[in-house]
Amino acid sequence: MSENCVNGTFREQHADAEKVDTILQIEDVSIKFGDFNAIKHVTTSVEDHEVRFFIGPNGAGKTTILDAICGKNKISGGKIIYQQEYDVTKLKEHVIAEIGIGRKFQAPSVFNGITIDENMELATARKHTLYSTTFHKLSKEKRDYMNYVLEFIGLQDKRFQYPTRLSHGEKQWLEIGMIMAARPRLILLDEPVAGMGRRETEKTADLLQAMKRNCAIVVVEHDMQFAKDVSDSVTVFHEGMILDEGTMDSVQHNQEVIDVYLGRGGEKGA
Amino acid sequence: MKKKVLVILIFLFLATAPLYMSMFRISLLGKYICYAIVAIGLDVIWGYTGILSLGHGVYFGLGAYCMAMYLKLEASQGAMPDFMVWSGLAELPWFWKPFANPVFAIGMVILVPMAVAVVIGYLTFLNRIKGVYFSILSQALAMILSVLLIGSQGYTGGSNGLTNFTAVFGNSLSSPMTKLVLFYVSLAVLILIYLACQFIMKQRTGKILVAIRDGENRVRFTGYNPAKYKVFVYALSAAIAGIAGALYVTQVGIISPGEVGINPSVTMIIWVAVGGKGTLVGPILGALLVNAMKTIASENFPEIWSYFIGILFVVVILWLPGGLISLNELPAKWKKKFGKQEAEEEFEEVMPGAEEVQICRKIV
To answer: Topology of A2-264 in CATH?
Structure first.
């Protein structure tokens, strides 16, 4: 059921997207905050169905670039092309979300005033017009998919509770579930396993593996074991520039990377 | 569930009130019903969406003035309204003319506040002006309108406002029958607006409004445009306030800039806060009770009645942040609070060095 649901309507809406291999191209992007150059001429690209990790010491600009992709930060130079079609730097945040880029922030940010079920409902709906949110219920197909996601993240039993009662890990999953429910083509995750125990981290790793069948994922993370388990490729940032890029194995043996980052054992004991 | 029972009880009480209350009391109650309608509109935007508008008197006033223009023309029976003659106007201003038609006037009661709210909402929410800045802006709006109304004496009746109405739809306003009908019309409108708002809040639109209150940015990254929803809810609450204003002026018989400015706008906030924001029944309860209390206090203690309202407000803000509607949760809350205190005390006794700490405290 899962495969059908995931692929069904989504593929229809993004029929052309299937042909696209490169889902995100970051071309010569620079970002300035006042006089401070947070990102300097960064170029990289992400393929479909790829799990890309952005790693590097604090302040290297990993989150800054995620913010730029989802429209939260303005860039001062370069281009960010999504699906070889949209220049996301010219779009508003909600439009970027609508064309299939999902973003999860570092701190879990779910809506506490509505139930888990309603949180998911908002995320699942594809039509975001006032008319449809007032007069239309979710279609059966969407409800099924929503139930599937709820089960997937293990919150089926708690669906009518308010998120305030969830543990930290569960909140993170709910938020990941909300992003899944929107069926994006590209998911941006900022430290999804920060503050999670080993078991929860492993569960999140499984979740990402399952999710990547339908989309590309970019993850900012300090947990090196998690990066090793889940990543297809890794980009190492240092002081706003790319230090190295490749598989986890190859970057691990780069002397420069070891010096600035890995040598210190990652940020949180790898 | 309890809230549903409460709201049915309130509606039943209002519906049966004419059986055991004097006509004078019924007129007052009719006025309070109008206040309750505004309070619902205000709660939709403040309690649910988290936008504090300190200028809803504007929309109440716009609705009231639109209706009053019709009532004034009806009372003048084709002649110039009296205040225009006093101000030396030779001819009825062009924008007054269509208001001779009651259907047009009622349409404007809803459309004018909505249009103003859409324009202002569009400009502010699209530019992401929010929080305190929006509140200040909305309050400035209330001030501007009242100054404008006072300033253009010849068109609006100045600080006296519009009054001396005689009839509505050909029925004399002084007859008890008309008054009773108006009372029930107000009640029906209250119930309708309550049901409509309840419907909206149960749909996804309502959930999005609550989500905007909890995290506007997150709503944006979920793919919804919060500005659109905020403009919608602002226009909705403006329209509701306008309707309330029209019902108010018809029953009370006067609208003046004093009922449009900052003071009444803030009073409206008090009704919602006292009743309980974030629930639709809370504001109804708040508007009815605060005003009933105001009447009783001002009849019995004419010199110090305003202190009672002040005290009520302070008590609710300090001990009942959820408003009167959360009164039933109070015992559980106290139990929790005092239970916790006991536990802490026990803990302090067991803690090593607790005695020293106590001694130090005494010395300090």
So the answer is: Rossmann fold (3.40.50)
